[in-house]
User: Fold this.
Amino acid sequence: MYKEQLKDLIIEKYRTRTPLAYVRTFGCRQNESDSERIKGILKETGFDFTDNPENSDIIIYNTCAVRENAELKVFGILGEVKHIKEKNPDLIVVLCGCMTGQKHIVEKIKKTYKQVDIVFGTGALNEFPRLLCELLHEKRFVCDTNEYTDDFSCRTDVVRNSTYKADVPIMYGCNNFCTYCIVPYVRGRERSRPSAEILEEVRSLAEKGYKEIMLLGQNVNSYGKGLDENIDFPTLLRKINGIDGDFRVRFMSSHPKNATRELIDAICECDKVCKHFHLPVQSGSDEILTAMNRNYSASDYLSIVEYAREKIPDFSFSTDIIVGFPNETEEDFQKTLDIMKKVKFDSVFSFIYSKRTGTKAALIDDKISDKEKSERMGRLLALQREISTEHYKRFIGRTLTVLAEEENTEKGLITGKSDEFIIVEFKADSSFLGQFVKVRITGAHNWALTGEIL
Ligand code: 5AD
Ligand code: SF4
Assistant:
Protein backbone atom coordinates (compact mmCIF):
# COMPACT_ATOMS: atom_id res chain seq x y z
CA MET A 1 0.00 0.00 0.00
CA TYR A 2 2.72 2.43 0.98
CA LYS A 3 4.72 1.51 -2.11
CA GLU A 4 1.90 2.78 -4.35
CA GLN A 5 1.64 5.98 -2.32
CA LEU A 6 5.41 6.38 -2.47
CA LYS A 7 5.48 5.93 -6.25
CA ASP A 8 3.00 8.82 -6.62
CA LEU A 9 4.96 11.02 -4.22
CA ILE A 10 8.20 10.33 -6.12
CA ILE A 11 6.60 11.29 -9.45
CA GLU A 12 5.17 14.44 -7.88
CA LYS A 13 8.54 15.40 -6.38
CA TYR A 14 10.92 14.60 -9.25
CA ARG A 15 8.43 14.98 -12.13
CA THR A 16 9.93 13.71 -15.42
CA ARG A 17 13.36 12.98 -13.90
CA THR A 18 14.27 9.54 -12.51
CA PRO A 19 15.69 10.13 -9.02
CA LEU A 20 18.97 8.42 -8.16
CA ALA A 21 19.82 6.35 -5.07
CA TYR A 22 23.27 5.70 -3.65
CA VAL A 23 23.36 2.61 -1.40
CA ARG A 24 26.49 1.78 0.60
CA THR A 25 26.74 -1.35 2.71
CA PHE A 26 29.08 -2.03 5.62
CA GLY A 27 29.73 -5.37 7.30
CA CYS A 28 28.63 -8.90 6.54
CA ARG A 29 26.78 -10.82 3.82
CA GLN A 30 23.54 -10.48 5.80
CA ASN A 31 23.77 -6.72 5.42
CA GLU A 32 24.62 -7.07 1.71
CA SER A 33 21.52 -9.20 1.37
CA ASP A 34 19.35 -6.64 3.21
CA SER A 35 20.71 -3.95 0.88
CA GLU A 36 19.60 -5.99 -2.13
CA ARG A 37 16.08 -5.87 -0.70
CA ILE A 38 16.33 -2.15 0.02
CA LYS A 39 17.43 -1.62 -3.59
CA GLY A 40 14.43 -3.72 -4.65
CA ILE A 41 12.09 -1.37 -2.79
CA LEU A 42 13.80 1.69 -4.29
CA LYS A 43 13.65 0.34 -7.82
CA GLU A 44 10.01 -0.62 -7.50
CA THR A 45 9.08 2.86 -6.31
CA GLY A 46 10.81 4.71 -9.14
CA PHE A 47 14.50 5.14 -8.28
CA ASP A 48 17.55 4.27 -10.33
CA PHE A 49 21.06 3.85 -8.88
CA THR A 50 24.32 5.78 -8.89
CA ASP A 51 27.83 5.08 -7.58
CA ASN A 52 28.36 8.73 -6.78
CA PRO A 53 26.80 10.11 -3.56
CA GLU A 54 27.22 13.68 -4.85
CA ASN A 55 24.81 12.98 -7.74
CA SER A 56 22.21 11.22 -5.69
CA ASP A 57 18.74 12.19 -4.45
CA ILE A 58 18.77 9.64 -1.65
CA ILE A 59 21.73 8.14 0.21
CA ILE A 60 21.35 4.95 2.22
CA TYR A 61 23.98 3.69 4.63
CA ASN A 62 23.36 0.13 5.75
CA THR A 63 25.62 -0.04 8.79
CA CYS A 64 27.53 -2.63 10.82
CA ALA A 65 28.02 -2.65 14.60
CA VAL A 66 30.18 -5.75 15.10
CA ARG A 67 33.39 -3.77 15.64
CA GLU A 68 33.98 -0.18 16.65
CA ASN A 69 35.97 0.67 13.51
CA ALA A 70 32.96 0.08 11.27
CA GLU A 71 30.93 2.53 13.37
CA LEU A 72 33.64 5.19 13.40
CA LYS A 73 33.83 4.99 9.62
CA VAL A 74 30.10 5.68 9.31
CA PHE A 75 30.30 8.68 11.65
CA GLY A 76 33.18 10.02 9.53
CA ILE A 77 31.17 9.60 6.35
CA LEU A 78 28.12 11.30 7.89
CA GLY A 79 30.39 14.29 8.49
CA GLU A 80 31.18 14.41 4.75
CA VAL A 81 27.52 13.99 3.85
CA LYS A 82 26.76 17.19 5.72
CA HIS A 83 28.70 19.09 3.03
CA ILE A 84 26.89 17.27 0.21
CA LYS A 85 23.59 18.18 1.83
CA GLU A 86 24.59 21.82 2.17
CA LYS A 87 24.94 21.88 -1.65
CA ASN A 88 21.73 19.88 -2.17
CA PRO A 89 19.28 20.50 0.73
CA ASP A 90 16.74 18.23 -0.99
CA LEU A 91 18.98 15.19 -0.49
CA ILE A 92 17.47 12.46 1.69
CA VAL A 93 19.87 10.66 4.03
CA VAL A 94 18.91 7.27 5.47
CA LEU A 95 20.73 5.26 8.11
CA CYS A 96 19.76 1.64 8.67
CA GLY A 97 21.36 -1.66 9.68
CA CYS A 98 22.94 -2.89 12.89
CA MET A 99 24.20 0.44 14.28
CA THR A 100 20.61 1.65 14.58
CA GLY A 101 19.80 -1.20 16.98
CA GLN A 102 21.71 0.61 19.73
CA LYS A 103 19.80 3.25 21.66
CA HIS A 104 22.89 5.35 22.42
CA ILE A 105 23.73 5.52 18.70
CA VAL A 106 20.20 6.59 17.72
CA GLU A 107 20.32 9.30 20.41
CA LYS A 108 23.68 10.50 19.10
CA ILE A 109 22.34 10.65 15.53
CA LYS A 110 19.25 12.60 16.60
CA LYS A 111 21.30 15.04 18.62
CA THR A 112 24.41 15.58 16.54
CA TYR A 113 23.83 14.37 12.99
CA LYS A 114 20.91 16.49 11.83
CA GLN A 115 21.76 15.66 8.20
CA VAL A 116 20.13 12.23 8.74
CA ASP A 117 16.43 12.17 7.76
CA ILE A 118 15.40 8.55 8.33
CA VAL A 119 16.63 5.87 10.73
CA PHE A 120 15.27 2.35 10.61
CA GLY A 121 16.35 -0.90 12.24
CA THR A 122 17.13 -4.30 10.72
CA GLY A 123 13.70 -5.54 11.84
CA ALA A 124 11.83 -2.73 10.06
CA LEU A 125 13.04 -3.24 6.50
CA ASN A 126 9.57 -3.71 5.04
CA GLU A 127 8.55 -0.42 6.70
CA PHE A 128 10.95 1.59 4.56
CA PRO A 129 8.28 2.73 1.99
CA ARG A 130 6.04 3.95 4.83
CA LEU A 131 8.90 5.84 6.47
CA LEU A 132 9.87 7.51 3.20
CA CYS A 133 6.21 8.54 2.67
CA GLU A 134 6.14 10.00 6.17
CA LEU A 135 9.29 12.00 5.51
CA LEU A 136 8.00 13.34 2.19
CA HIS A 137 4.67 14.32 3.79
CA GLU A 138 5.83 15.70 7.10
CA LYS A 139 9.37 16.85 6.26
CA ARG A 140 10.77 15.96 9.67
CA PHE A 141 13.10 13.28 11.08
CA VAL A 142 11.56 9.78 10.98
CA CYS A 143 12.76 6.86 13.09
CA ASP A 144 11.54 3.26 13.44
CA THR A 145 13.71 0.74 15.24
CA ASN A 146 10.90 -1.68 16.10
CA GLU A 147 11.25 -5.34 15.31
CA TYR A 148 8.33 -6.44 13.14
CA THR A 149 7.65 -10.16 13.40
CA ASP A 150 7.29 -10.72 9.66
CA ASP A 151 10.40 -8.73 8.76
CA PHE A 152 11.99 -11.72 7.00
CA SER A 153 9.20 -12.07 4.48
CA CYS A 154 10.51 -10.38 1.39
CA ARG A 155 7.70 -8.38 -0.18
CA THR A 156 9.70 -7.11 -3.10
CA ASP A 157 11.88 -8.27 -5.99
CA VAL A 158 15.47 -7.94 -4.82
CA VAL A 159 18.03 -6.13 -6.96
CA ARG A 160 20.89 -8.63 -6.88
CA ASN A 161 24.54 -7.63 -6.95
CA SER A 162 25.47 -10.56 -9.19
CA THR A 163 23.87 -12.42 -12.08
CA TYR A 164 25.38 -15.77 -11.08
CA LYS A 165 25.74 -15.74 -7.28
CA ALA A 166 22.73 -15.21 -5.03
CA ASP A 167 22.29 -14.86 -1.29
CA VAL A 168 19.14 -16.37 0.18
CA PRO A 169 18.34 -15.49 3.82
CA ILE A 170 16.96 -18.49 5.70
CA MET A 171 16.90 -17.10 9.23
CA TYR A 172 17.41 -13.82 11.05
CA GLY A 173 18.68 -12.86 14.48
CA CYS A 174 20.67 -14.76 17.07
CA ASN A 175 19.93 -16.29 20.49
CA ASN A 176 23.48 -17.18 21.46
CA PHE A 177 24.68 -14.10 23.30
CA CYS A 178 28.39 -14.75 22.89
CA THR A 179 29.74 -12.33 25.47
CA TYR A 180 31.71 -10.19 23.00
CA CYS A 181 28.98 -9.88 20.38
CA ILE A 182 26.48 -7.09 19.79
CA VAL A 183 24.48 -8.98 17.14
CA PRO A 184 21.78 -10.50 19.42
CA TYR A 185 21.07 -6.99 20.74
CA VAL A 186 20.83 -5.33 17.33
CA ARG A 187 19.29 -8.10 15.22
CA GLY A 188 16.95 -9.57 17.81
CA ARG A 189 15.90 -13.15 18.46
CA GLU A 190 16.26 -16.03 16.02
CA ARG A 191 13.40 -16.45 13.56
CA SER A 192 13.40 -18.82 10.60
CA ARG A 193 11.90 -18.29 7.19
CA PRO A 194 9.30 -20.88 6.14
CA SER A 195 10.94 -23.56 3.99
CA ALA A 196 8.40 -23.26 1.15
CA GLU A 197 9.44 -19.62 0.65
CA ILE A 198 13.13 -20.55 0.62
CA LEU A 199 12.65 -23.45 -1.77
CA GLU A 200 10.60 -21.29 -4.10
CA GLU A 201 13.32 -18.61 -4.16
CA VAL A 202 16.08 -21.17 -4.84
CA ARG A 203 13.99 -22.83 -7.57
CA SER A 204 13.44 -19.52 -9.31
CA LEU A 205 17.17 -18.60 -9.03
CA ALA A 206 18.15 -21.99 -10.48
CA GLU A 207 15.74 -21.47 -13.38
CA LYS A 208 17.33 -18.07 -14.05
CA GLY A 209 20.72 -19.79 -14.28
CA TYR A 210 22.28 -18.74 -10.96
CA LYS A 211 25.31 -20.91 -10.24
CA GLU A 212 25.89 -20.36 -6.54
CA ILE A 213 23.32 -20.09 -3.78
CA MET A 214 24.51 -18.87 -0.39
CA LEU A 215 22.10 -19.67 2.44
CA LEU A 216 22.41 -16.92 4.99
CA GLY A 217 21.74 -16.55 8.68
CA GLN A 218 23.55 -15.66 11.90
CA ASN A 219 23.48 -19.31 12.91
CA VAL A 220 22.00 -21.38 10.07
CA ASN A 221 22.54 -24.60 12.06
CA SER A 222 19.62 -23.76 14.31
CA TYR A 223 17.30 -23.20 11.32
CA GLY A 224 13.71 -24.35 11.81
CA LYS A 225 13.20 -23.64 15.51
CA GLY A 226 9.89 -21.90 16.15
CA LEU A 227 8.41 -22.67 12.72
CA ASP A 228 5.01 -24.38 12.40
CA GLU A 229 6.59 -27.07 10.23
CA ASN A 230 8.91 -29.81 11.48
CA ILE A 231 12.19 -29.02 9.77
CA ASP A 232 15.86 -28.55 10.62
CA PHE A 233 18.91 -27.39 8.68
CA PRO A 234 20.10 -30.79 7.41
CA THR A 235 16.59 -31.47 6.09
CA LEU A 236 16.47 -28.07 4.40
CA LEU A 237 19.84 -28.75 2.75
CA ARG A 238 18.57 -32.07 1.39
CA LYS A 239 15.43 -30.42 0.00
CA ILE A 240 17.44 -27.67 -1.71
CA ASN A 241 19.79 -30.30 -3.10
CA GLY A 242 16.78 -31.95 -4.73
CA ILE A 243 16.00 -28.85 -6.83
CA ASP A 244 16.90 -29.27 -10.53
CA GLY A 245 19.66 -27.12 -11.96
CA ASP A 246 23.39 -26.65 -12.38
CA PHE A 247 24.21 -24.78 -9.18
CA ARG A 248 26.18 -25.22 -5.98
CA VAL A 249 25.12 -24.44 -2.44
CA ARG A 250 27.01 -22.77 0.39
CA PHE A 251 25.83 -21.60 3.79
CA MET A 252 26.99 -19.11 6.40
CA SER A 253 27.41 -18.71 9.35
CA SER A 254 27.42 -21.72 11.65
CA HIS A 255 27.94 -22.32 15.34
CA PRO A 256 30.08 -25.30 16.43
CA LYS A 257 27.66 -26.16 19.24
CA ASN A 258 24.97 -26.90 16.63
CA ALA A 259 27.26 -28.51 14.06
CA THR A 260 26.03 -32.07 14.39
CA ARG A 261 27.22 -35.27 12.71
CA GLU A 262 23.85 -35.37 11.01
CA LEU A 263 24.66 -32.04 9.39
CA ILE A 264 28.06 -33.28 8.22
CA ASP A 265 26.32 -36.38 6.81
CA ALA A 266 23.88 -34.17 4.89
CA ILE A 267 26.71 -32.01 3.48
CA CYS A 268 28.61 -35.12 2.39
CA GLU A 269 25.59 -36.75 0.80
CA CYS A 270 24.26 -33.70 -1.10
CA ASP A 271 26.13 -33.39 -4.38
CA LYS A 272 25.27 -29.70 -4.85
CA VAL A 273 26.48 -28.69 -1.37
CA CYS A 274 30.15 -27.61 -1.27
CA LYS A 275 32.38 -29.69 0.98
CA HIS A 276 33.41 -26.58 2.81
CA PHE A 277 32.35 -25.49 6.24
CA HIS A 278 32.82 -21.96 7.54
CA LEU A 279 32.79 -22.75 11.24
CA PRO A 280 33.91 -19.90 13.51
CA VAL A 281 36.09 -21.30 16.32
CA GLN A 282 36.89 -17.86 17.85
CA SER A 283 39.58 -19.30 20.19
CA GLY A 284 41.45 -22.53 20.88
CA SER A 285 41.44 -22.05 24.67
CA ASP A 286 38.64 -23.69 26.68
CA GLU A 287 38.90 -20.96 29.34
CA ILE A 288 38.38 -18.24 26.74
CA LEU A 289 35.60 -20.21 25.01
CA THR A 290 33.81 -20.41 28.37
CA ALA A 291 34.32 -16.69 28.98
CA MET A 292 32.91 -16.10 25.48
CA ASN A 293 29.83 -18.27 26.32
CA ARG A 294 30.46 -20.43 23.25
CA ASN A 295 29.29 -23.76 24.78
CA TYR A 296 31.87 -26.06 23.19
CA SER A 297 35.46 -26.98 23.90
CA ALA A 298 38.44 -27.07 21.56
CA SER A 299 38.22 -30.87 21.54
CA ASP A 300 34.49 -30.74 20.62
CA TYR A 301 35.49 -28.58 17.69
CA LEU A 302 38.27 -30.93 16.65
CA SER A 303 35.96 -33.93 16.77
CA ILE A 304 33.61 -32.29 14.23
CA VAL A 305 36.58 -31.66 11.92
CA GLU A 306 37.80 -35.22 12.40
CA TYR A 307 34.36 -36.69 11.65
CA ALA A 308 34.07 -34.63 8.44
CA ARG A 309 37.55 -35.59 7.26
CA GLU A 310 37.00 -39.27 7.98
CA LYS A 311 34.17 -39.07 5.47
CA ILE A 312 35.87 -36.73 2.99
CA PRO A 313 39.61 -36.30 3.59
CA ASP A 314 39.67 -32.99 1.70
CA PHE A 315 36.78 -31.44 3.59
CA SER A 316 37.68 -27.76 3.79
CA PHE A 317 37.27 -25.64 6.92
CA SER A 318 37.50 -21.89 7.28
CA THR A 319 36.97 -19.94 10.47
CA ASP A 320 36.73 -16.68 12.41
CA ILE A 321 39.12 -16.00 15.28
CA ILE A 322 39.10 -13.19 17.84
CA VAL A 323 42.54 -12.15 19.05
CA GLY A 324 42.85 -10.42 22.41
CA PHE A 325 39.56 -11.25 24.10
CA PRO A 326 39.77 -9.53 27.54
CA ASN A 327 42.57 -11.04 29.64
CA GLU A 328 43.52 -13.65 27.03
CA THR A 329 46.90 -14.94 28.26
CA GLU A 330 49.86 -15.93 26.12
CA GLU A 331 49.00 -19.54 26.98
CA ASP A 332 45.42 -19.07 25.74
CA PHE A 333 46.73 -17.53 22.55
CA GLN A 334 49.13 -20.45 22.03
CA LYS A 335 46.12 -22.77 22.20
CA THR A 336 44.53 -20.80 19.36
CA LEU A 337 47.70 -21.24 17.29
CA ASP A 338 47.61 -24.96 18.20
CA ILE A 339 44.08 -25.46 16.95
CA MET A 340 44.97 -23.65 13.72
CA LYS A 341 47.84 -26.09 13.18
CA LYS A 342 45.65 -29.09 13.96
CA VAL A 343 42.71 -28.13 11.73
CA LYS A 344 44.76 -26.56 8.90
CA PHE A 345 42.08 -24.06 7.96
CA ASP A 346 42.01 -23.07 4.30
CA SER A 347 41.26 -19.52 5.38
CA VAL A 348 41.00 -17.61 8.64
CA PHE A 349 39.17 -14.33 9.19
CA SER A 350 40.84 -12.84 12.24
CA PHE A 351 39.78 -9.82 14.26
CA ILE A 352 41.25 -7.97 17.20
CA TYR A 353 38.66 -7.92 19.98
CA SER A 354 36.60 -4.75 19.94
CA LYS A 355 34.73 -3.67 23.06
CA ARG A 356 30.98 -3.32 22.38
CA THR A 357 28.90 -1.33 24.86
CA GLY A 358 26.02 -3.40 26.22
CA THR A 359 27.74 -6.79 25.91
CA LYS A 360 28.92 -8.80 28.93
CA ALA A 361 32.58 -8.81 27.88
CA ALA A 362 32.56 -5.00 27.88
CA LEU A 363 32.31 -5.15 31.68
CA ILE A 364 35.58 -7.12 32.07
CA ASP A 365 38.57 -5.14 33.30
CA ASP A 366 40.98 -6.01 30.48
CA LYS A 367 44.66 -6.07 31.47
CA ILE A 368 46.10 -6.89 28.04
CA SER A 369 47.59 -3.96 26.14
CA ASP A 370 46.66 -3.03 22.55
CA LYS A 371 50.32 -3.47 21.60
CA GLU A 372 50.28 -7.07 22.84
CA LYS A 373 47.05 -7.74 20.92
CA SER A 374 48.47 -6.37 17.65
CA GLU A 375 51.63 -8.37 18.14
CA ARG A 376 49.58 -11.56 18.61
CA MET A 377 47.58 -10.75 15.51
CA GLY A 378 50.82 -10.47 13.51
CA ARG A 379 51.92 -13.91 14.72
CA LEU A 380 48.54 -15.43 13.90
CA LEU A 381 48.57 -14.02 10.36
CA ALA A 382 52.12 -15.27 9.76
CA LEU A 383 51.18 -18.76 10.92
CA GLN A 384 48.08 -18.84 8.73
CA ARG A 385 50.14 -17.77 5.68
CA GLU A 386 52.44 -20.72 6.33
CA ILE A 387 49.55 -23.15 6.85
CA SER A 388 47.63 -22.14 3.75
CA THR A 389 50.69 -22.22 1.47
CA GLU A 390 51.54 -25.70 2.71
CA HIS A 391 47.97 -26.98 2.85
CA TYR A 392 47.02 -25.61 -0.61
CA LYS A 393 49.83 -27.72 -2.13
CA ARG A 394 47.59 -30.77 -1.77
CA PHE A 395 45.69 -29.55 -4.83
CA ILE A 396 48.67 -29.30 -7.19
CA GLY A 397 48.17 -31.61 -10.16
CA ARG A 398 44.48 -32.03 -9.39
CA THR A 399 41.46 -30.59 -11.18
CA LEU A 400 39.04 -28.31 -9.31
CA THR A 401 35.67 -26.93 -10.29
CA VAL A 402 35.81 -23.15 -10.16
CA LEU A 403 33.07 -20.58 -10.60
CA ALA A 404 34.68 -17.83 -12.71
CA GLU A 405 33.86 -14.60 -10.91
CA GLU A 406 36.18 -11.71 -11.74
CA GLU A 407 38.36 -10.57 -14.60
CA ASN A 408 41.76 -8.92 -14.40
CA THR A 409 41.89 -7.45 -17.92
CA GLU A 410 45.48 -6.20 -17.56
CA LYS A 411 46.84 -9.65 -16.80
CA GLY A 412 44.25 -11.58 -18.84
CA LEU A 413 43.37 -13.53 -15.72
CA ILE A 414 40.13 -14.75 -14.26
CA THR A 415 39.68 -15.45 -10.57
CA GLY A 416 37.01 -17.53 -8.98
CA LYS A 417 36.42 -19.83 -6.04
CA SER A 418 36.67 -23.58 -5.93
CA ASP A 419 34.07 -25.69 -4.13
CA GLU A 420 36.49 -25.58 -1.18
CA PHE A 421 36.14 -21.76 -1.09
CA ILE A 422 39.74 -21.26 -2.23
CA ILE A 423 40.59 -18.48 -4.68
CA VAL A 424 41.82 -19.88 -7.99
CA GLU A 425 43.47 -17.77 -10.69
CA PHE A 426 43.79 -18.88 -14.33
CA LYS A 427 44.31 -17.46 -17.82
CA ALA A 428 41.00 -16.99 -19.63
CA ASP A 429 38.81 -14.29 -21.12
CA SER A 430 35.58 -12.77 -19.91
CA SER A 431 33.41 -15.26 -21.83
CA PHE A 432 33.95 -17.65 -18.91
CA LEU A 433 32.52 -15.29 -16.27
CA GLY A 434 29.61 -16.78 -14.40
CA GLN A 435 30.42 -20.32 -15.62
CA PHE A 436 31.80 -23.37 -13.85
CA VAL A 437 35.21 -24.25 -15.26
CA LYS A 438 37.50 -27.19 -14.68
CA VAL A 439 40.94 -25.91 -13.71
CA ARG A 440 44.06 -28.05 -13.36
CA ILE A 441 46.04 -26.68 -10.43
CA THR A 442 49.69 -25.88 -11.13
CA GLY A 443 50.72 -23.61 -8.24
CA ALA A 444 49.93 -22.74 -4.61
CA HIS A 445 50.42 -19.37 -2.88
CA ASN A 446 49.40 -18.30 0.59
CA TRP A 447 46.30 -16.51 -0.71
CA ALA A 448 45.31 -18.51 -3.81
CA LEU A 449 45.88 -21.38 -6.21
CA THR A 450 46.92 -20.91 -9.82
CA GLY A 451 46.05 -23.22 -12.67
CA GLU A 452 45.13 -23.84 -16.28
CA ILE A 453 41.74 -24.30 -17.82
CA LEU A 454 41.16 -27.85 -19.03
N1 5AD B 1 35.29 -7.92 18.42
C1 5AD B 1 35.98 -8.53 17.43
N2 5AD B 1 35.43 -9.42 16.60
C2 5AD B 1 34.12 -9.70 16.76
N3 5AD B 1 33.32 -10.54 16.10
C3 5AD B 1 32.09 -10.46 16.65
N4 5AD B 1 32.08 -9.57 17.66
C4 5AD B 1 33.35 -9.09 17.75
C5 5AD B 1 33.98 -8.17 18.62
N5 5AD B 1 33.32 -7.56 19.60
C6 5AD B 1 33.79 -11.41 15.02
C7 5AD B 1 33.55 -12.88 15.35
C8 5AD B 1 32.43 -13.24 14.42
C9 5AD B 1 32.71 -12.33 13.24
C10 5AD B 1 31.56 -12.14 12.33
O1 5AD B 1 33.06 -11.12 13.83
O2 5AD B 1 34.74 -13.59 15.02
O3 5AD B 1 32.44 -14.62 14.06
FE1 SF4 C 1 27.38 -13.07 17.60
FE2 SF4 C 1 27.74 -15.48 18.72
FE3 SF4 C 1 25.38 -14.87 17.54
FE4 SF4 C 1 27.56 -15.24 16.02
S1 SF4 C 1 26.59 -16.80 17.33
S2 SF4 C 1 26.06 -13.55 15.84
S3 SF4 C 1 29.18 -14.41 17.32
S4 SF4 C 1 26.26 -13.90 19.37
